[in-house]
Amino acid sequence: VSIPVPNIEIPHFRHGKKGSGGVGQGEGDPGQPIGKGEDEGDGQGQAGEDPGQHIREAELTIEELAQMLGDELQLPEIKPKGQSTIKAVKTKYNSIRQTGPDSLRHFKRTYKRALRRLISSSEYNPNRPVVVPTREDERFRSWTEVPLPHANAAVIYIMDVSGSMTDDQKEIVRTESFWIDTWLKSQYDGLQRRYVVHDAVAHEVDEETFYRVRESGGTRISSAYAESKKIIERDFPPADWNIYIFQFSDGDNWGEDNTSCLKTIQDDFLPICNLFCYGQVESPYGSGDYIRELRKVAGKYENLILSNIKDKEAIYESIRTFLGKGR
Question: Is residue 210 part of a domain?
């Protein structure tokens, strides 16, 4: 990401032509407005040969932007779930050193060093090939700690792509999903992500499709829940994974009883998820009923977070609402 940073011009005095008059000098009456000088144009003309202003660019990596996002929103560091750790370190024996315990002595390297010493000093007798290593010949195995990506966080993004979701609402969802993803990747090594889009029927898609798909049709939220449940059962055992679900919709749930969807959340998702976040974007066509149903049970669960996203300006506060508890 490149951000233009304009240079700050330091104010300084500039002298005019000699003898052209000064403050309180020259022709004119008291109170007469001062107009433009003779040498000043109206800003129009042909291109010249003089250099123009140069704008400096500050380049930032996505990791730096994630840290800035966390600092600005005061997002807490995420706490790992149960016995799992966010980052793992593996001890690997991949080097040799001259000191160490006898249990780590490298016999082959020690023998070669001793043999090389005897041959170079003409002390080696092929008829009596006795090789006795000295302390200087000994070599020992050594280790280094290698960071081991420990992919113990899984995120499922659910987006409503039905006809009631306009392109503006879908753009809001994609923008917020991108920044949520950026923050979570800064907290976990090897973050696993899955994407579900749905209208009346749900589909698991890849990342590129999630950020580009344009669909229409009715809305059945239960289809997205069924597809998400399949993904968790297939790929992410809850005992080993920190699971996050971020659902975005306009609140329309055509032809379905919201009670069954609430039961699915309470029975299948909330007991195993670090967070279940529902963000509702305002659409001129959606009913907006679903968030009102979720509010009836939200007070019972700390990991059920709701956010009403009115427009693009509300994305900022919605991210703080979702991630502000550090779960």
Answer: yes
Angle at 176 between CA 175 and CA 177, to 5 degrees: 90
The predicted-structure confidence for 260-289, as pLDDT tens digits, reads as follows: 899 999 999 999 998 899 999 987 766 678
Assigned token pair, 24? 């309180």
Query: Residue 66 in contact with residue 107, Cβ under 8 Å?
Result: no
Any domain includes 9: no
- Report the run of H or E that residue 278 belongs to, with start and end: strand 273-281
Strands 56-59 and 2-5, by their bridges, are antiparallel
In a domain, 25, yes or no: no
Question: What average pLDDT does this structure show over 219-244?
Answer: 90
Q: pLDDT value at position 157?
A: 94
Is residue 257 predicted with pLDDT exceeding 90? no
Residues 232 and 107 in one domain: no
pTM recorded for the entire structure:
0.61
Tell the residue number behind the tokens 């229409």, with chain if given.
Answer: 216
For residue 225, what pLDDT is reported? 93
Q: Is the pLDDT of residue 168 over 60?
A: yes
135 DSSP assignment: G
**Torsions phi, psi of 274, nearest 5?**
-60, -45
A 10 A CB-CB count for 120 gives 9
Strand partners, 59: 2
DSSP-based three-state secondary structure for 229 = helix
- 176 and 138 in a single domain? The answer is no
Give the model confidence (pLDDT) of 34-88 as tens digits: 655 555 455 555 555 555 555 566 676 767 777 777 776 666 566 555 444 455 5
Q: How many CB atoms lie within 10 A of CB 267?
A: 9
Which helix (H) or strand (E) segment is 192 a member of?
Answer: strand 192-198
CA–CA dist 250, 126 (Å, integer)? 87
Domain that holds residue 125: 90-147
Q: Are residues 235 and 102 in the same domain?
A: no
Residue 171 to residue 214: CA distance in whole angstroms: 11
Domains in the chain: how many in total?
2
Distance, in Å, from the CA atom of 294 to the CA atom of 306, rounded to the nearest integer, reads 8
